Amino acid sequence: MEKNKTLITFLVKVDEMLKLKSHALDYSAFFCKDIFRIGAFYYMFTYNRNGDVHTNTLREITKEEFYIRKTEMLSYRPQKHLQFWSDETNSYELRGYAHIDRKWQIRANDCLFITENNPLKTIHGQLIDNATERLEQSKEKELQRKKQYAKLCGTLSLKMGIAYENVIRIGPNRGKLTQFKESMQQALIKIQSMPLTQLRQCYNNLAGLNGRSGKEQAAKDLGIKYYNTDIKMLNLRELEEPMQKKLDNYIKNSVQ
User: Fold this and answer.
1) What pLDDT does 1 receive?
2) Is the separation of the CB atoms in 76 and 86 below 8 Å?
3) Which end of the chain is more exposed for a tag (fewer CB within 10 A), N or C?
4) For the chain, what is the largest distance between any 2 Cα atoms, rounded to a whole number of angstroms?
C-alpha cells in the first residue's frame, strides 16, 4: 500500500459547519458537501456517488471562499429556514451545526492544504505516520510468520522425506503429510502394474500435457491424497520419473 493511498480518519471538534446533502429520488446518485471552520482555518469536504463510482476530497479553503460558498449553499433553499426540500429529480437537506465533533474518512492523497500550521494538516501528517508505522509493523510480523512457517515446513520435509514444496503447499500438518506420503507410495506400486496404454495416458496427464484437468485425473487414478492443494503446484517428480523410465523400457524392448 502506497503512503498517499492510506485511508485515514479525521475525528475533530468543529466550531462551525454547514452541510448540504442531496440524492436522486431513485437513490442512484448521492452528493454531500461540508464547509466548516476550526479556529481560524476553513475547509471543504465533498463526497460524490454515482452508481458504483465514489469520489471524495478534503481541502483547505480561504475565509473568503468559505463565506462565498456558505451564501451559495443557503441560496439553494426555495424558502428561507427550510432544511428539507425536493424537486423533480432530487431530494435535498441543508443543516448548520456549531461546536460539534465530526468524523471524515478519506484517502491521504485526496487531501489538500494551503497553509503550514493548520490543525488538519498536522493531524493528516500524524495519521500518515501512524498508518505507515502500523503497516511496517504488520509487514515485519508477516515476514516473521512466513519465516517460521518456512522453517517448520523445512524441518518436516527432512524428517518425513517429502519434497519441501509439497510440505509448503499441503501445510505443516503431520496427519495430512503422512497420508500424502503413503498415497504416493501406493501410487508407485500402481505404476509398476499399469499396462502400457494406461501408463502412457497417466504419464501425459501427470506431466501436465493435458492441463489441470488431466493432472487432477492422474492424481485421482493414482489415489494421491493432496487435499485442497493446487495439484499444479505440487512436485510429483518421484512419480513422473519412474513412469518415464518404464515407458523408456517399453520402447527399448519393443525395438529389440
Assistant:
1) 42
2) no
3) C
4) 105
Q: Give the angle subtended at the CA of 128 by the CAs of 127 and 134, to the nearest 5°.
A: 90
Q: Please identify which residue in the block is written with the cell numbers 493432496.
A: 226
* The C-alpha cell that represents 252 in the structure block: 527399448
pTM of the shown model: 0.58
Closest CA to 191 of 226, 231, 242, 253: 242
Cα-only R_g, the chain: 33
CB 5 within 8 A of CB 135: no
* Environment class of 156 (CB within 10 Å of its CB; exposed 0-12, middle 13-18, buried 19+): buried
Upper half-sphere CA count for residue 157 (Cβ side, 13 Å):
16
Taking only the tens place, the pLDDT of each residue in 56-113 is 999 999 999 999 999 999 999 999 888 999 999 999 999 999 999 999 989 888 999 9
Query: In this structure, which amino acid lies at residue 164?
Result: Y
